[in-house]
Amino acid sequence: MTIQTGRTEELISLTERSTAHNYHPLPVVITEGEGAWVRDVEGRRYLDCLAAYSAVNFGHRHPDIVDAVRTQLDRVTLTSRAFHHDLLGPFAQELGELAGKELVLPMNTGAEAVETAIKVARKWGYEVKGVPEDRATILVADGNFHGRTVSIVSFSTDPVARTHFGPFTPGFTVVPYGDPTALADAIDHTTVAVLIEPIQGEAGVVVPPAGYLSQVRQLCDARELLFIADEIQSGLGRTGATFACEHEDVVPDLYLLGKALGGGVVPVSAVVGDSSVLGVIHPGEHGSTFGGNPLACAAGRAVVAMLRTGEWQRRATELGEHLLSRLRPLVGAGLLAVRGRGLWAGIDIDPALMTGRQASEALLAEGVLAKDTHGSTIRLAPPLVVTPEEIDLAVGALSRVLANAR
Ligand SMILES: *Cc1c(COP(=O)(O)O)cnc(C)c1O
């Protein structure tokens, strides 16, 4: 759709010749970003409505985050956990306080936080709950996305994520998302935890029925299970709250955080919980060379400081209402459905008009970056620094794209 000049074509072709084809990027080559905007190698500007899957919640190169990281670059960047450094304690304390939990286990990527939680839940199951050795099961939801490791794709319900990657890790039971009865029926004496996204991101911003999260919490309490909330995409301001679980006043046993925790600068993830759960892990049993490194802690502390004021959460709520109010009139005019929470929307394009990929390419030509999740569903997640006028610009582009296809 976009007119590609030599430079764009050259760089795309170089990338395609030189990297494994595990992604199918849109045909734009970004070279700069600031706030909600990026610039490509041709000098064209685009409004970023994906924000690196919410990893760039605070906008590209937010000055507070960049300053914190730049300052740290001049001190020390990596020590490993063989030694203490002066930022891990403060970061963990501040993040724990934000989450209302006692302990933080720092890792790097989201998938590592999920893997960590699986290990913690199993160990807790054997040592605290008394589940028979090597029998622990974790309940997960269909349509889930928790990452790409072998164990995580073992309980994916997406055939593309799984096919030819077996043999799979046992110990997971998939139940329908949003259905507390099915969840209750799946619990047995081997169950140690329920692992869910409070809102399913990759599935297309799927908000569960009201009351679901609190019913999960009640079931976990009644049956002595850990409630593990994967807030890697939903957390840290995106939905108008620090954690999406807050919308139902639910406090999980473990929060899984990632993406925006690194401020869009470095990969930072964490498992956050109380010592009654995270305390099962002892030296040597789990770790990561880069987990909790000084640079990561500097970025993470800046992010936590920003979230402490509540300002970003309020902004996401207000901008989200604005976004949804602008999107809703498009239902019946090219969109089949719109849903969301905070500044996070899933839109289903009428598949008779075009695929999500085609819509994303057409939006690109209009100067808006968005990406299909699957089929004809697109997720809109602009950085929280976006303005109402910029949201109008994005929705205007979308309505033109839909009108042109009709
Ligand atoms: C992105 C994501 C992950 C995986 O994070 P990576 O950093 O890509 O490993 C896990 N869970 C959810 C809900 C995510 O959105």
From TrEMBL:
Any Pfam family hit: Aminotran_3
One of the GO BP terms on file: L-proline biosynthetic process
PROSITE patterns, sorted: AA_TRANSFER_CLASS_3
Protein keywords: Amino-acid biosynthesis, Aminotransferase, Proline biosynthesis, Pyridoxal phosphate, Transferase
EC annotation from Swiss-Prot or TrEMBL: 2.6.1.13
Domain of life: Bacteria
Pathway(s) served: Amino-acid biosynthesis; L-proline biosynthesis; L-glutamate 5-semialdehyde from L-ornithine: step 1/1
Essential cofactor(s): pyridoxal 5'-phosphate
GO MF term list: identical protein binding; ornithine aminotransferase activity; pyridoxal phosphate binding
InterPro entries in the cross-refs: Aminotrans_3 (IPR005814), Aminotrans_3_PPA_site (IPR049704), Class-III_PLP-dep_AT (IPR050103), Orn_aminotrans (IPR010164), PyrdxlP-dep_Trfase (IPR015424), PyrdxlP-dep_Trfase_major (IPR015421), PyrdxlP-dep_Trfase_small (IPR015422)
Gene3D superfamilies, per the entry: Aspartate Aminotransferase, domain 1, Type I PLP-dependent aspartate aminotransferase-like (Major domain)
Primary enzyme class: transferase
NCBIfam families associated with the record: Orn_aminotrans
Protein family (similarity comment): Belongs to the class-III pyridoxal-phosphate-dependent aminotransferase family.
Protein name: ornithine aminotransferase
Organism of origin: Phytoactinopolyspora alkaliphila
GN (gene name): rocD
